[in-house]
Design a protein that fits this description.
The complex is a heterodimer of chains A (287) and B (564).
Chain A (H helix, E strand, L loop, with lengths): L19 H15 L7 E5 L14 E4 L5 H11 L4 E7 H7 L1 H10 L4 E6 L34 H7 L4 E6 L3 H13 L4 E6 L11 H7 E3 L9 H9 L4 E8 L27 H9 L4
Parallel strand pairs in A: 1-2, 1-3, 3-4, 4-6, 5-6, 7-8
Antiparallel strand pairs in A: 5-8
Helix pairs in contact in A: 1-6, 2-4, 3-4, 5-8
Chain B lengths: L1 E3 L2 E9 L3 H14 L3 E7 L6 E11 L12 E4 L2 H7 L8 E4 L1 H4 L5 E3 L2 H7 L6 H12 L4 H11 L5 H23 L3 E3 L11 E2 L2 H11 L4 E4 L6 H8 L8 E4 L3 H13 L4 E5 L1 H17 L3 E7 L16 H6 L8 E3 L4 H18 L2 E7 H5 L1 E4 L13 E4 L16 E7 L4 E3 L13 H12 L13 E3 L6 E6 L3 H11 L4 E6 L1 E3 L5 H6 L3 E6 L5 H10 L5 E4 L8 H11 L1
Parallel strand pairs in B: 1-8, 2-5, 5-6, 6-7, 10-11, 10-12, 12-13, 13-15, 14-15, 17-18, 21-22, 21-24, 24-25
Antiparallel strand pairs in B: 2-4, 3-4, 3-16, 9-16, 14-23, 20-22
Helix pairs in contact in B: 1-5, 1-6, 4-5, 5-7, 6-7, 8-9, 8-13, 10-11, 16-19
Classes of the chains: A alpha/beta (287), B alpha/beta (564).
């Protein structure tokens, strides 16, 4: 497939010049095209924020829902129709702040989806407040004396929860990011990609230059099945590791549903419940 | 000597003492033997201890409402007596043991605990209590013993035979009381009801849901709504249902919306606090025009309130919950049959109109039951409303009815784009004011045709009544029985099971009455205020109860006599 197959044509995009989201949408389109996934087989589920507008800017099915709620929606879509490729795609505030509880329990459920988090360490759409991943000391119009909260670490959290796939990518390096995103889509189970991106409008600390200087790629010999090692790598905030930190094969949420034990047919294709079975269930209440 | 027609038996004990087992055994045995029965329970928000009770009414005729009066009280411990004291009258026969009851009036002395210990364990006390009732009511003893054997069939043979013995021991005591004319019960049996169904409101809702094609439930446990989640979860072996216990109610409603989007028929079940958390998702359903069925089992608030008690206090929440303006349907089943059929219908309504349908019940509805003849899972014809999309599909096409054909991803060549932002016909985010107004108008006219096939509110009595009693939801049977007891021909009764949109006939119905009296289990007459907002008619009097207990027949009789 061609990347252009995902183009939606002339549309007014709400992102600022220089925004990392322009790179991320390219990374997504390339990944899908290279994996030969047709637009009508993909569902993007997003929340609220500048990142969450991404599904509007490419050809796909989408459910642009509420702030923080994309993972439960995506989980249910995948469970209802496992044939769809489902991507939960939103920002750091959406996924780690408002949706923190869903992040934790989404990992525990292990639905087969890509959870792509645009992580620019700041709130963009609400104009520059701290996000859960903002670094300590960052001064904002609300955090007037600088951030005093410990930054949320999505990778250690995910590894602690024994997530099925945990990766960090950087949008400024598209080729490598495409490799990571493709692998995450193909991975069977929950796959977190924390996608580092600058916010040229509001984040003056974590710039393109800063990311260049403070990130590195994991070596090829990194053992991604070694949970302790992955955790140790993820705790290092001085140098942010890029690549796939951790993977673990495990049964998916939808794969363990009784409804798919005999057949894979999506729920919508199945008829009503069998009336005779219903009659039997009702009759049970005779005694 | 007590001469009683149609009796109420109350069994009481601590949580964990098996009062619910007693209720289940006794109602089933009585019904199988041809008695009409009604049962409801009240329980504390705890797992052990406290004082819980169950009321079982037994009659020759259908009996379907809660009464305060206790004809026979069987307390299995002394705490229960204190708790039930206000309901113990001069006519109440108390059955039990002086060792823990002390000196009480009208005592039929049966050393239940001692008899149980003789059988090897005091846990047999509750089965002895079942036996006593069976003896008093002249139940077919073989039937009772067979039922006990079946009921405990998973247990060891020794335990089964001990339980059968316990029934026999109790039965003898009950029969002795009857034979010695200490009591005389004049209740005839009706063989035609032996195949009747006994199921509580929670189970009826769950069966109605699967009859309506429900194949997805996501919920967070909260009393008293959990029964529906449990019941559907237990059907996943026989039926194609995905059942998920969500991490919170916010997740639950969002999962349900995701499931509908992908082609499932999904529901949630919750209570007031959980529904409050879901209102953000409810509003999302309004904006993306997603069908969803929400069961809201009310309990008294505010906040945690009385978690295991009953109230009709969340109508205003159901009516107004969720930011912004969007159409919704609110249903409040009045009977077990309506719990089943209206829940079934809710899935069709949600699907047809692409709106949230809220089923408003309460703890009393969920935990009460009486024998009904049948439920037909094919009576309501299920209609499916999603389409196969073409390449040029637009999710929010402007139509005259306001209802845009709903596609689902993966069925057809079109893309299904839904957005919580205001959106254009394709589903893309917009800030165009003209489009905003078009989409608002489109959404708000969706229910214009709603009443074309919907039932009128139930109406009993004279069309130009002196007093018109207005009720909704779970108060139905208590109002019916109360009006029958008062026996005044000038009283009529209108009862609403579909609350919103309000039936257009309402103004006319109310205007024909000299006096309108509304009955509600809340403190501020929420339905009365809603009727006034919709019709301009103010009710003349209110009969309100908000102690956390259900309305009893006596409550309504007393207040009704004051009002006519």
């Amino acid at each position: 497939m061609d990347v252009k197959d995902y183009d939606i044509g002339d549309i007014d995009m709400a992102w600022c010049p220089g925004c990392g989201n322009f790179s991320i949408i390219k990374i997504i389109k390339r990944s899908l095209a290279e994996l030969e996934i047709t637009p009508s087989d993909v569902v993007f589920v997003s929340g609220i924020g500048q990142a969450a507008k991404l599904p509007h800017y490419l050809k796909c099915n989408f459910f642009n829902g509420l702030h923080g709620r994309s993972v439960p929606v995506a989980t249910a879509i995948k469970a209802t129709n496992p044939r769809l490729t489902v991507i939960a795609d939103s920002g750091d505030g959406c996924n780690y702040g408002e949706g923190g509880n869903h992040f934790i329990h989404g990992i525990r459920r292990n639905p087969d989806l890509l959870h792509l988090v645009h992580d620019n360490m700041i709130y963009g759409l609400t104009k520059g407040q701290a996000s859960p991943t903002s670094m300590k000391g960052m001064v904002t119009p609300v955090q007037v004396d600088g951030v005093i909260l410990e930054p949320f670490n999505p990778l250690t959290t995910a590894i602690a929860l024994n997530a099925s796939f945990v990766a960090r990518a950087y949008c400024g390096d598209q080729d490598k990011a495409v490799d990571i995103v493709k692998e995450a889509i193909q991975h069977e189970g929950y796959a977190l990609v924390d996608m580092l991106q600058p916010c040229p409008s509001f984040n003056e600390i974590n710039t393109y230059k800063w990311y260049k200087e403070n990130t590195y790629y994991l070596e090829d010999d990194h053992d991604r099945t070694d949970r302790s090692k992955a955790f140790e790598v993820a705790t290092d905030l001085d140098r942010l590791a890029l690549g796939v930190l951790y993977t673990r094969e495990k049964p998916t949420f939808e794969g363990q549903q009784q409804v798919y034990s005999k057949e894979q047919t999506p729920l919508w294709k199945r008829g009503q419940h069998d009336p005779d079975t219903l009659r039997e269930l009702i009759k049970k209440h005779r005694d | 000597m007590f001469y009683i027609i149609g009796i109420s038996i109350v069994l009481a004990g601590q949580a964990g003492q098996g009062i619910q087992t007693v209720e289940r055994l006794l109602t089933r045995i009585l019904k199988l033997d041809g008695f009409h029965v009604f049962a409801t329970k009240e329980y504390m928000s705890r797992v052990r201890g406290g004082a819980n009770s169950t009321e079982i009414r037994v009659s020759s005729e259908p009996v379907r409402a809660y009464v305060d009066a206790i004809d026979i009280l069987i307390p299995i411990d002394k705490e229960a007596m204190k708790r039930l004291e206000p309901r113990i009258g001069t006519g109440t026969l108390i059955v039990g043991d002086t060792s823990y009851l002390g000196d009480v009036n009208n005592l039929l002395e049966v050393p239940i605990t001692e008899l149980a210990k003789d059988l090897g364990n005091k846990i047999y006390s509750n089965i002895i209590a079942v036996g006593i009732c069976c003896g008093m009511l002249d139940v077919d003893m073989n039937l009772a013993k067979d039922y006990v054997r079946t009921f405990f069939k998973e247990k060891d043979d020794d335990i089964i035979s001990k339980n059968v013995e316990a029934i026999e021991v109790g039965f003898k005591r009950g029969k002795d009381a009857r034979d010695t004319n200490l009591i005389s019960l004049d209740i005839s049996k009706d063989d035609s009801i032996k195949d009747d169904l006994l199921l509580h409101g929670g189970e009826a809702i769950s069966l109605g849901a699967v009859a309506g094609g429900c194949n997805f439930i996501s919920s967070y446990p909260m009393s008293p709504s959990t029964a529906v989640l449990v019941s559907l979860a237990q059907k996943t072996e026989e039926l194609d249902i995905i059942s998920e216990q969500a991490e919170d109610e916010i997740s639950a409603i969002n999962m349900a919306l995701g499931a509908w989007y992908a082609g499932a028929r999904a529901m949630i079940t919750t209570s007031g606090g959980g529904f409050a958390l879901m209102t953000e998702g409810l509003s999302l359903a309004g904006m993306i025009e997603s069908p969803v069925v929400m069961h809201l089992a009310q309990r008294p608030g505010p906040a945690t309130g009385l978690p295991t008690r009953t109230e009709q206090g969340d109508l205003a929440l159901a009516l107004h919950g969720g930011h912004g303006e969007f159409p919704r349907i609110i249903i409040a089943p009045a009977t077990i049959e309506e719990c089943f059929y209206l829940t079934n219908e809710s899935f069709n309504l949600a699907d047809e109109y692409q709106v949230p349908v809220i089923i408003l019940t309460d703890q009393y509805t969920i935990d009460s039951y009486y024998n009904i003849s049948s439920l037909d899972p094919t009576k309501v014809e299920n209609t499916r409303h999603f389409i196969k999309t073409g390449e040029e599909y637009h999710r929010y096409t402007i139509t005259e009815s306001g209802i845009s054909p709903r596609g689902i991803p993966g069925y057809g060549k079109g893309l299904v784009c839904v957005d919580s932002d205001e959106h254009d016909q394709q589903g893309h985010i917009t800030e165009n004011f003209t489009v905003r107004k078009q989409q608002m108008d489109k959404r708000l006219r969706k229910l214009d045709g709603f009443f074309k096939n919907m039932q009128e509110p139930a109406y009993h009595g004279s069309e130009s009544p002196g007093t018109l009693v207005v009720g909704w939801g779970s108060t139905y049977h208590a109002i019916r029985e109360a009006i029958n007891r008062v026996g005044d021909e000038s009283i009529a009764h209108v009862h609403y099971s579909i609350l919103h949109p309000l039936h257009p006939s309402t103004g006319d119905i109310l205007n024909k009455a000299k006096k309108v009296v509304i009955v509600e289990s809340n403190a501020t007459s929420q339905f009365g205020r809603y009727i006034r907002a919709e019709t301009g008619i103010k009710t003349d009097a209110t009969i309100l109860k908000y102690t956390g207990e259900p309305f009893s027949v006596e409550d309504i009789v007393k207040r009704l006599k004051e009002e006519i």
